[in-house]
Amino acid sequence: MSKPRLTREQIAARAALELPDGACVNLGWGIPNLTAAYVPAGRTIYFHSENGILGMGPRAKSGEEDYDLVDAMKIPVTLVPGASFFSQVDAHVMTRGGHLDVCILGGLQVSEKGDLANWRVPGAKGAGGIGGAMDISVGAERLIVTMEHNAKDGSAKVVKQCTYPLTAIECVRTIITDLAVIDVTPQGLVLREVAPGFSPREVQAATEAELSWSGKVPEIPVAKTA
Amino acid sequence: MAHKEKLFPTTDAAVADISDGATILFGGFGGAGFPNNLIQALARRGVKDLKIISNNCGTGDGEAGILFKNRQIRSVISAFPGPGAKYFQEQYDAGLIELELVPQGILCERMRAFGAGIPAFYSPVGVGTEVARGKEERVIEGKRVILEKALGADFAFIKADTADKLGNLVYREAARNFNPVMATAGKTTIVEVEKVVEVGELDPESIVTPFVFVDRIVVAKGLRYV
Question: How many CB pairs under 8 A join A and B?
Answer without folding.
Answer: 140
